[in-house]
Write a structure and sequence with these properties.
Length: about 200
């Protein structure tokens, strides 16, 4: 049986994987539909992936004193960056490049923390099983949501992606005032003694 801490961490990870996959697809479809030189499209794509990589390194390098506040800000940053997709147009290269970087940052910044929370809330013997469950559920939700939003126009797709990311806010990780982010029963005895 999964604990409340595990369910809350699994929820934010599944939400993030699902949102990321759909935003990724939508963003690159937008880039393809914009009439600009291929070198500009490649530059925007590169900036997107560099934003993810650099922000993941940044996110893993600083200490977070309040996990709840950090995750709240990270999810809200994802909402704002998704809204920026509404204004992608031809002829605004600086905006397209800025959106690429911001979108990349909104994806990569919190990933190290949620993956660390996943590791802290699963015992090593079951981590693979739980990881497979999270990945399978993410794939299922990506498929279902992609089928649903495929028939929508671009503004409606952006709204659906916004709502999907906003769902991350209702995760117990974010909604509970007081919560242990690590189930102490899962820690090795040497770590329990230090606590």
């Amino acid at each position: 049986m999964l604990t409340k801490a595990q369910l809350s961490v699994f929820f934010i990870i599944i939400n993030t994987f699902t949102w990321y996959s759909l935003v990724y697809s939508f963003f690159f479809n937008c880039l393809e539909s914009i009439n600009m030189p291929n070198v500009c499209k490649i530059t925007a794509s590169t900036l997107f992936f560099l934003g993810i990589a650099f922000s993941a390194l940044l996110g893993s390098s600083f200490y977070v004193s309040s996990i709840r506040s950090f995750l709240l800000c990270w999810v809200l940053f994802g909402v704002v960056s998704t809204a920026l997709l509404s204004f992608l147009e031809e002829g605004f290269l600086v905006y397209t490049y800025t959106t690429s970087i911001v979108l990349g940052f909104s994806i990569g910044l919190g990933f190290p923390l949620i993956l660390a929370l996943f590791a802290e809330n699963t015992i090593i013997e079951k981590r693979g099983r739980y990881g497979g469950l999270v990945w399978a559920l993410s794939g299922f939700f990506i498929l279902v949501i992609a089928i649903v939003i495929d028939v929508l126009d671009a503004p409606s797709k952006i709204l659906a992606l916004l709502l999907l990311r906003i769902l991350g806010l209702i995760s117990p990780v974010l909604s509970e005032k007081r919560r242990k982010f690590c189930d102490a029963s899962l820690l090795p005895s040497s770590v329990k003694e230090k606590r």
